[in-house]
């Protein structure tokens, strides 16, 4: 026997006149009879009740005829009325359940205040929970969440293709891009088919790509400013300045100036043969576009290894560096570029710091942020450990566990700290305690010269 299923929204036709439970993005639960649907999965429920659950109790609020926008539905399903009567829950009046719900909310708020106070005493500030913006937790991942600076957080969270006859690709093709300023926490949402999305590091501009084109939006007016055809073979792109995109193909690196009407991308340098066979994950430059670096990952001896190609615009290929140790060690390498003597790189100043939680052998660095003004390097690991090092000498200064969950994205904050996104959707601000850091550097690390310099540069 062959089973036949209607595609997409049409499958809801089989649920007409049935009693359904509908769970919404804002956390509400509705129960009612489905009377009508359209091609966008908008629902009309009849004899609707809003059911509120608090622990082992529940109460029902009559809502009558209720129209639900399809975008707001998280899940729905038919209710078995026979089994519904056997549920081990106590039904109470509307007044009682609302009072219990209020007390529950107050208890949670008090718990959050105590938690925020404890975090603040450690220099941590709890900013936001991304799930409160309606972002599915399973989409709070790399590379769906991007931070090109501390001004903007960009999340590409997919939605099911409910209205696309013949649409393919699932969540990656039918996407919602949410952009917000972590300090203001005012989100903006764009309904676009996006394979990737990144905010401009300085300007209120959002760049979005699909399979063939790049779109540039103004987040102030929400208007489309530019639409450009992407070059073939593009595998990685990012903002390298407020007006320039860096485009990386399997063969070469290009810069695309978008300061006015977009022109043709400018060739910068060709990738090495070894780098072409890796998964490209990063491209960075200095402010003057004199030093350019591409990073790729590849599997070697059952381990994930990295390969960096460093390019000087004036001198060409300078360095092709990869892991040189058979053990999976995470080390900090600091090298000075552009030194006048011999025209070559000075060797690593320090390479003994291992970025691993001794209790988790699978911990590894996920973000490296450099504060040139303070002369500090922040290294964040997957297990939520922040290592602070001196930039000039690469001396380890301190290490702290700042988040008990997996972390994967970070950016320097205005206050010389880190803005961190964790896998459970939390956005944390990590700030340094100046007095405690200076005392530790001078007394524990025993580097009074570094302590004196930090006293002058730290805010």
What descriptors fit this protein?
SH3 type barrels, 30 strands, 4-stranded antiparallel beta sheet, 459 residues, 2 domains, Methylamine Dehydrogenase, Chain H, mainly beta, mRNA binding, globular, 6-stranded mixed beta sheet, 5 helices
Detailed description of the structure:
This protein folds into two domains: 9-96, SH3 type barrels, CATH 2.30.30.100; 127-161 and 175-337 and 349-457, Clathrin heavy-chain terminal domain (Methylamine Dehydrogenase, Chain H, 7 Propeller), CATH 2.130.10.110. Helix content is 12%, strand content 43%. Helix 4 packs antiparallel against helix 5. It is mainly beta and 459 residues long.
What would a concise description of this structure say?
The chain is mainly beta and 459 residues long. The protein has helices at residues 81-84, 94-121, 273-276, 434-444, 448-457; strands spanning 19-24, 29-37, 43-54, 57-68, 73-78, 90-91, 124-129, 145-149, 152-158, 175-180, 188-192, 196-199, 205-209, 213-218, 224-229, 234-239, 244-249, 252-257, 266-270, 279-285, 291-300, 303-312, 316-322, 365-371, 376-381, 385-390, 396-401, 407-412, 417-422, 426-431.
